[in-house]
């Protein structure tokens, strides 16, 4: 298939492109490089540098090849930034995303795999979260993801689109050649690895008074290659006539911030400097996935099991790329 991947120069998108190429699909990447990297795009993919909100760039991407389906990862994705700049999140994640859908329609493309998030759920719901758990985002980032899912639902109801929304939990780890390199990083694992290398200040632990087993926030970490592989299965599922739906992608295990720190110290053999900090607004105490539906519907199951395996791959990539991507 010819697959248009928006955000394919980003952390997860570049690994999705790797997996597409491995499965003999052809990938066209549309990315404005606002947080992605030209060097992250696998050599066999074709990169159009531009925004999903820009008609010319979208036109170029849709005309590069006859597109069979779209994997839409391009987004603003910082929880804290979304609290400070909700309008920006609305514009990129909803308005520009809707423009992408309009452009798909104009080009007769119906199938879409969308990067949604655990942030759509009500964090006070019982864990693990299933796709039918209550939806109530606790920050503007999650609200924009949920609103875009609703738009997909509406358009699917009138037959304009066919979609799978993949609700990722905390994506982490690296492939051999591609890893996480965000300027102004906010994700816990790359921050801890850099602190372990002595390449940054002590890492703030936001909140040690949560109602969890050790007082720190609990998350479900899933390997980026496993997440990427689910996309390859999802485009095949849609091509085979699968139903419109949302699917969780997580490991099904909650790990606390303190447990992640201890595991980073074990894997790297180094001490990680940290500093206590107040809770961040919009950060829920715990998010844990049930991914039974993805297993059943896509025949997917995580291959990189356990936090240590995730950390070993992330650490290996960081040691090989201490400065991240060149461009
Ligand atoms: N990282 C996680 O744990 C996680 C969890 C849940 C959901 N997600 C979602 O997965 C997707 C990818 O996340 P990521 O961690 O790889 O982030 P990322 O920032 O590395 O990737 C996003 C990519 O989209 C590009 N982009 C942003 N706005 C654009 C625009 N208007 N037009 C074209 N390109 C644009 C960026 O340059 C970047 O390459 C996002 O939609 C995010 O919300 C990520």
Can you walk me through this structure?
The chain has 327 residues and is α/β, with parallel strands linked by helices. It has two domains: 2-171 and 222-249, 3-Layer(aba) Sandwich (Rossmann fold), CATH 3.40.50.720; 188-219 and 252-320, UDP-galactose 4-epimerase, domain 1, CATH 3.90.25. Helix content is 38%, strand content 17%. The model has no long low-confidence stretch (mean pLDDT 96). The chain is built from ten helices and 13 strands. The chain is globular and about 55 Å long. The site of nicotinamide-adenine-dinucleotide (NAD) has 29 residues, from helix 1, strand 2, helix 4, strand 5 and strand 7.
State the separation between the terminal residues, measured CA to CA.
29 Å
* Mean pLDDT over the full residue set: 96
H/E order of the elements? EHEEHEHHEHEEHEEEHEEHEHH
Strand content: 15-25%
In this entry the ligands are: nicotinamide-adenine-dinucleotide
Q: What is the CA-atom radius of gyration, in angstroms? A: 19 Å
CATH class of the largest domain, named Alpha Beta
Here the CATH topology of the largest domain equals Rossmann fold
Strand tally:
13
Spatial strand arrangement across the major sheet: 3-2-1-4-5-6-11
Number of helices: 10
Q: What proportion of the residues is helical, as a percent range?
A: 25-40%
What assembly state would you assign to the polypeptide chains in this entry? single chain
Pfam families: Epimerase
Organism: Eiseniibacteriota bacterium
Cofactor: NAD(+)
EC number: 5.1.3.2
